[in-house]
Amino acid sequence: MSEVPTAAISRLVTYLRILEELETREIVRTSSTDLAERAGVSAFQVRKDLAYFGRFGTRGLGYSVAILKRELMRVLGLNQTWNVVIVGVGRLGQAIANYPGASDYQFQYVGLFDVSPELVGRRVRDLTVRHIAELKDFVRENKVDMGFLAVPPERAQDAAQAMVTAGVRGILNFAPVVIGPRPLEGRSESRSADGNVLQDSGDDWRGVIVENVDFLAGMKRLAFYTLNPHLKDSPVPEDPA
Amino acid sequence: MSEVPTAAISRLVTYLRILEELETREIVRTSSTDLAERAGVSAFQVRKDLAYFGRFGTRGLGYSVAILKRELMRVLGLNQTWNVVIVGVGRLGQAIANYPGASDYQFQYVGLFDVSPELVGRRVRDLTVRHIAELKDFVRENKVDMGFLAVPPERAQDAAQAMVTAGVRGILNFAPVVIGPRPLEGRSESRSADGNVLQDSGDDWRGVIVENVDFLAGMKRLAFYTLNPHLKDSPVPEDPA
DNA sequence: CTCTGTGAAAACCTTCACAGCA
DNA sequence: TGCTGTGAAGGTTTTCACAGAG
């Protein structure tokens, strides 16, 4: 199903970050070998990853840092504005809201939501925290594109469902649980006989993208690989001559 | 090189989380189909993932929640104590230190480190923040196994190098940069101006495991897939009859 | 001669079908 | 019969070797 490997997208993000660093250092040209070394992958991989999206280099010369950066930003959708809400404004949500770097790419935090009476009404990073009940109207009125989910795990599924119902198209899930269509409790035997009624709310999820950022899972993977280092593919593969 | 797919380890972590939830609900048996549904993968995948590590079920019956949970904890190295330091105690580092769930698995935060005079000496979560200069002695004296890296990106490589030199065996890297052996410099300008030969410390990195938890990268991947939903492999694959 | 772009081969991971045991 | 465990098939990703542009 996937024409472009998922892992390739992660690598593109890394390449872009490297290009930005090169640009701040006023380095104007680079090569697949140079990018590969800095990204910790092979030069083959760099060229293949770029080839999925176009031809950005010059044979014999390499890549223009400015051009490749611009093209990767375009490919990744980072040359447009994204309106973001954060749902869950506890310690983690606040750390996310205040973490520098998001606004570099036109990610704009337009709303913060929580259920806690202690938080609703407070100001965090020049925004007033609203109650989650206001989410639906807010998303529509403010053309919200994506939501960052930073609530405790036991509330994650409901909060995610609220986001989806409100019309959010992408969710960055920080909660250590799998979120998805319907409560995952008992399967729904709903089959539309002919008409298309019984639109189980799960259908709202079609087309919604979920990306997970799970620190507890990362911690556990780290434990495993620390005990079994030979099972980890070496981080810096060999380069060709 | 990897006998066990990397993705399988991530899934084991998910299965374990599901088993814990089943246990709190006093459900004592499960099946590959049930786990698969809750984890958002296929039942084949569940059985294959488990088969990499042993035979934990009973044919015709399924899996005992308690036994499978115990076995997965053992496989993942979560039935032993891990001594952890956090390097970087800004907003993100503090959110990590205070995030619930780490101690459930015998991950013990034994030390917090920073360079900021405003932070060093302060108490965070019953620990006093120390200066990074003390890291090396501390790691040796306290048998530190892993370090969580939550410093700003421009300091990440140096801080990571300090951890490795100190003898940490695993790094959970929250900074949005690639960390690894030596400064990854050496191309554009061979400027290691400040003299000393620094006899490439890169070798210290052998056997050190790095896991990345990169929220900015997740955000960018989300942007990409929101624009290109057809390139995302569907989150809940079909189940067999 | 250099370094990119790419078809083909190899490696890897997932899916499948069914053997095997309760 | 029911569901696990697994060799083999199928599909995807990575690696490779080299054609081709500058």
Automatic annotation (TrEMBL), chains A, B:
InterPro entries: CoA-bd (IPR003781), NAD(P)-bd_dom_sf (IPR036291), Rex_DNA-bd_C_dom (IPR009718), Tscrpt_rep_Rex (IPR022876), WH-like_DNA-bd_sf (IPR036388), WH_DNA-bd_sf (IPR036390)
All residue ranges annotated as the CoA-binding domain in the record: 77-178
Keywords: Cytoplasm, DNA-binding, NAD, Repressor, Transcription, Transcription regulation
One Pfam family from the record: CoA_binding
DNA-binding region: 14-53
Stored Gene3D superfamilies: NAD(P)-binding Rossmann-like Domain, Winged helix-like DNA-binding domain superfamily/Winged helix DNA-binding domain
Subcellular location: Cytoplasm
Residues binding NAD(+), per UniProt: G88, V89, G90, R91, L92, G93
Family per record: Belongs to the transcriptional regulatory Rex family.
NCBIfam families to which the protein is assigned, alphabetical: PRK05472.2-3, PRK05472.2-4, PRK05472.2-5
Assembly: Homodimer.
Function: Modulates transcription in response to changes in cellular NADH/NAD(+) redox state.
Protein name: Redox-sensing transcriptional repressor Rex
